Amino acid sequence: MRALALLAALLAGPALAQTADDAFANGEYLVARELWQEAAEAGDRDAEFNLGVLYDLGLGVPRDPVRAFRHYLGAADAGHAEAQFNVAVMIDAGTVRDPDARAAAVWYGRAAANGVPRAAYNLGLLYLGGSGVAQNGRLARYWLDEASDAVPAAGDALTRIDAPDTGDGVARPDVQGGFRVDLPDDTARAELVWTAAPDGSDGPFIVQIAELPGAEDTGRLAVPTETPGSAASVPLDRAEARHAWRVLRLGAEGTTYAASPWAAIETGIDAPLPEGAVRFEVGAEDADARRLAQALGTALARNGILSRIAAVEAPVEETAVRYAFETDAELAARIAGILPGLGAEAATPGSAPVLVPGEVVVSLSGGLAPPTN
Length: 373
Fold this sequence. Notes:
The chain is about 40% helix and about 20% strand. It contains 12 helices and 14 strands. The strands form 3 sheets. Strands 3, 4, 5, 7, 8 and 9 form a 6-stranded antiparallel beta sheet that branches. The chain has a 5-stranded mixed beta sheet with strand order 11-10-14-12-13, covered by helices on one side. A 3-stranded antiparallel beta sheet has the order 1-2-6, with helices on one face. Helix 3 (about 30-40) runs antiparallel to helix 4, helix 5 packs across helix 6 (about 80-95) and helix 7 packs across helix 8 (about 115-130). It is globular. The relative contact order is 0.08.
């Protein structure tokens, strides 16, 4: 079955070079291999995947699972979804090394987040049996549902889930892996995988991606991604930035959350990982408040606090610090403690809109005096 699926994926995939596709269709596998080898060396992930298929199935070359795995892995690292699935299957089955269900779950998650139904099905089975991941009926149901239209066996597996999970409070998600993928069109995405024990929350997971501070800015939180599943493929707004991520679950009451620690997506990051975020609200005409927000943002960035400035139409009457989640009370108190004329006790819970958990709202009125010549 997997061999037929590999051939179908190969023939249905985008053409790399018409001569290579023609050679393969005509059974001229050695010609196809030479052409795909040249394209793969130039960075073509589809060609890399196709080479994996040739060595996996022994088409025109001796069957070589190790070499097939190497080609699949190269394409998978570059974001090729079918290659990610094949890497997962080979790791899961122990084709080239001892079976590793946890590593397989990561690759199934990446492939499933990129739309491969068979990856969603296999990941659902891992959650159903608690192999490589925490046993979790809700996540098993989600992934099996995702696969059910394309994989008939997923419907049968769904009948083996007896009842929804129950638990006390909200479980902190566990990060399994975060990966940056640079795409051929010069954009980039993050492929993120996590797991979680059953808990009393039935809401979605919330994925946060932070653009870390650079030489010209103070970093920011991107718009969060919500998903009922345990993997996500998220476009990165600024491919040139460096990023960190975490995933969280809201408590049933909606005022608390449990979050994984922040983790870097790219390697070699020397900026501090986020400890929180601040949204400065300043009046559109309040230049003093804007200067103060800029100065505070620069100082906070050195300590892992991301910030952004939002102009509001109505004048801000007085400086205030607010937070929406009890989990953020300590951060709000820290921020209030460094503001002129306030103290830690000035941080208050409020109903002001907060875009994402972990972000404190600071309304600024006035601030630094204009610079003198």
